[in-house]
Known about the structure:
The structure holds 4 protein chains of 4 kinds. Chain B is α+β, with helices and mostly antiparallel strands.
Amino acid sequence: MALHRGKGLATIEYPTGMNQNGDPSQAWIKVKPDGRVDVFSGTSDIGNGSKTVQSQIVAETLGVPYDWITYDNSNTDSSPMCTGTFASRATFVAGNAVLKAARQVRERILAIASRELEIDPEDLEVADGTVSVKGTPAKSMGVDEVAGAATFVHGELLTGDGAHLNPGAAIVDPETGEVDKPPHAAISYAACAAEVEVDDETGDVRVLKLTQAYDIGRAMNPTLVEGQIEGGAVMGLGFGVLETCYPYYPSAEHRGDGMSTYHVPTMAELPEINNVLIENPSEGGPYGAKGIGEMANNAQPAAIANAIYDAVGVWVTEFPITPERVLAALDARSEPRREGRMVAFDEELSINSFSSTRTWGA
Amino acid sequence: MKVVGARLPRYDGVGHVTGRTTYVDDVRLPGMLHAAALRSPHHHARITHLDTSAAEAMAGVHAVITHADVPLLVYGHLSGGGIPGDEPLLAKDHARYRGQPIALVAADTVDIARAACAAIDVGYEELPALFDVRLAFDDDAPVVNDAFGNWYDQYEGNLDVRQIRKGDIEAAFDAADLIVSGVYRTQSQEQVPLETQVCVAVPEPDGRLTIHTCTQAMYFSLGVVCSHLQLPMSQVKMVGGTVGGGFGGKVDTASDTLTALAAQKTERPVKWRWTREEEMLASGNRGPWHMEIIDAVSRDGWILGRKMLTIHDAGAYGRFSVYGVTKHSFHHTGAYTIPNLHFDGYVVFTNRIPTTAMRGYGITGLSTAIEVHAERVARELGMDPYEFRLKNANRVNDTSPNRIPYEDPSTVEVLQSLASATGSELSDDLRAMTRDQRSADMLPDHLAAQIGSGGGH
Amino acid sequence: MTSTAAVSMPSSEAEAVAAVTEQPFATVLAGGTLLVPQHTLGQVAVERAVWLGRAEMDGISRSNGRMTVGAAAPLAACTRLDAPVGPCAANIGDNEVKAQATIGGNICSPAPYGDLRGPLLALGAVLRWADPDGTHTGGIADFAASGGARPGMLLLDVAFAVPEAGSFVALRRHHTQSLTAMSVSAVRGADGAVTIAATGAAPDACRLHAAEAVLAGGGSIADAAAASVSDADPYDDALASAAYRSRVLPVYVGRALEQLGA
Amino acid sequence: MELTVNSVSCTVQSPPLTSLLNVLREELDITSPKAGCESGGCGACTVLVDGQPRRSCLTALCTVDGAAVVTVEGLGTPEDLSRVQQAFIHHYAAQCGFCSDGMVVAATAYVNAGGSDDTDAIREALAGHFCRCTGYVKILEAVAAAARGDELDIDSTASSANNTYVTIAGAES
Lengths: 362, 457, 262, 173
């Protein structure tokens, strides 16, 4: 038996937000008479942490403690429209909606405080739940007092709403694919380096280490973004070497129907994972955020494939890279076909004949 | 900034670790019925008859839902984007994939509901099934999709292909020192959320419906439910927002609509929770992709042009696949700037489970293909993989395949950081690179006119 | 299916035999790791069950160079046995499953379950089981020929001579709950003869006689490994293809024999 | 049959072959053990039976008659979290939370049995527990922290050693 180690690399980019229908999200916020804040957003939290991050955006923007925020995404009667939790849009797109709503609330807090303190709103600031006069911090009142005054003195509701809509991008030229506006809210970038060990007698691949670099825009909550990146790495590992719904694709037979026959990664498969998180604030995201949840499983498969080449000198181009496919590639070990300028790594190439005839096979 | 950027704990973390968080399956209501689905055992069949009377007569069975109970049977998930619907909520005349729901039974217990499903009399005439996208275009191929045939044919301009054409692809290939081709296939992956699809639908005294949903997108699902049931949005209250994992697999949750129909018909709360086996074998998963790439490259390591053909195996119905292929086309240069492009992408239908969104949708397989191809090209050129990637990495104001200038591309910095983190030595030249817009004198003549002119291409 | 089947709880092996073999025949509940989920999901009908948890059938004893393992011994206890049984038991499920699943249940479970049939076949283990006709003994193959697991049958114990040496190798599982696609067990007996068995090389566990014959004739491990394919009857399933099984069977046979020091 | 669940004695009526999971969820309305796969493959239903971690979906009621069963609800309350629960919060070991019920129980069994903070030992103990969200990194950190007996602040989360941050030149805030 010989175990071979190899290293491989991949770099990727990925859009934040959707390319259809303007990708709307909306939010509204109201403040209770004691200053506590109710945020209504339609964003489902599927584990990604949007309840947390959107609450942080509101607390930051209003200048109140995080634990003053009640976040309600529980139903469509009270929460306004959100397109949904996908396309890495919950922090950026839906986050912008709560940000805008919070800014409105902040203005109203300052307006009431201005009347109470008899100071121009421009000269007020809010932090830690207290409105104070810039330069004269001793002159201040609590946001709780502001909310009480709004309710019982001024007869006003401290509330705000916000909506984010990307101007709907249209494909202006179906021949060329040119669009009139960006069909995304931002783009993020990442790279992954993989180290693998390959058993050249069985084709078994063990992923030993993944080192990753992600442009995250701004870490709204570093621990949560790490959680996305680590979880994505293991899902990408699954896509790269373990998981397939159709082991004999294109055949639809012999599908794994449960945990014992479909190979999701467990702790047993966990490689060493190290991450570099790169802050590169986006132009339009809340506090510079970008969405990175979706892309988090995109870079590992190629990095692993390239590491396998580095280890044993064969390309496996059908994913997942199961032991069977590695061994088949080792058994068939071949150089690309080189003719003049042409370098053909794989023979089944129909690209030049396909579009005109729409039949397969060169 | 103090709150944003802080390492605060999860908003709902205490509930999660103490067993107090309520997920949909934890909802229980007096008089709640339980549902089970009858699914097609065949990959492709004509349904010759469907008789539910024996099942309906069973003790403990309260309702059997079939296509005849659905006010609007066919609704397209992307109809808002102008893409016609093609998928019936329940199979009517044809079953197009194994696992396709044909009927839903609501009964006192899950066991009774399952037994009643077995008692439904369905006649099938098996039809030849299509699984191989490479056979979909043959004249004698079985026809999979009622609305579109075997591939989606209603792109803008009545095209049946998503195209990108940019620059002068023939000139790029004429100028190339090497023309490197490769074929890449990526596979179906199941999202495997630990919480399987589950719904509790409750008829309210005022005639409204409350739907406890595991959807990733409550408003999207609200639209789907209201469309199939032909109700205004005021008549349905979706309750959810706390989901036991999704990863894309809980956007098109048909469980909501079907359970709602059962609740309407029985006038009782109904719960439908999928088994793990149903989740694995009958829920939408990541679709397979077939990708062919030919790059025209110069001896000194520039990618001058790319031809690419993508065939996306969508499964039996469209769902989000047209969106997925469009997104795929917009990103088919990956993190590089390639000035001359010729891309064709097809959505092809086969008799397998309709594929759907999954993390990285439209791009996971693409990134995989592009990056193995990049490594091959670099190796063929005898070039360091970092150098090849850094050289071609997108820079500020370069344009994407769909002509959008990159505002803040960080590929250069990302690669430099990765090299540093892995102890890979980069030359001074590579370390000195930035994302800043390239000046024309940094480029070979044949690219300077295309890339270095300020990003108009 | 949450049937209302009654469950009797015998407190000795004799009571258990009586409870299982009386009409209507009972389903045996040992660890329950297969039966309980099948029952919950409505995949098996149970009229009457007999639980072995109090029947004192979980003993593991060694005497005169022979191990006897009660059918209700949990896999967790079996992991402490020498190769090939110990490492094979360790390779099944996770710790929680091993604490519950039993050796008897494993032997009685259809492929692709039943990993322990491989090592036990290599060991020439003798099974003892009871049915309405009385108590029987025989090897793994005899047990299968008698009808194997079935209502009214109770596996009592399994016994084997402690080998001079044993080894076990398997295709790596990626999930502790993943089934093992293929394994090879090798045993060198007191007489120096080597016996080899595999799971996943054929629809059920099989002896690799040709490989054994090569070794008996003084052949090399490589030659024995190469010969092993002639006893295989490979198949496709969700875990591995027939082609892959054939391709790597010799590799694993070779590794098992190297480990054995053959 | 009798069970003591989270220190409360219960007489249960479910038939003897009913899975403990269904007894807890459907008869007793204790919903923390989750039906992730109902086949022993995911660990979301793990509970303590007489102190030992058990897959409740694999366990027939009749086999645990008279036993003491503890679910994650019984390990701590929101006001009085157990050390493992605190560690799961501080180390962000729960994302969607659906695996956490079983994961916390299994981790508690590991720590109670004197398990160390050795990563390989934790992996061995918990490898049958499936989590699709976290990639396990932070779960391992949480269990190790609990095993060490770290003092844990649940109002903040931990920065892990495997993550470093850089800001792109020109993009500083």
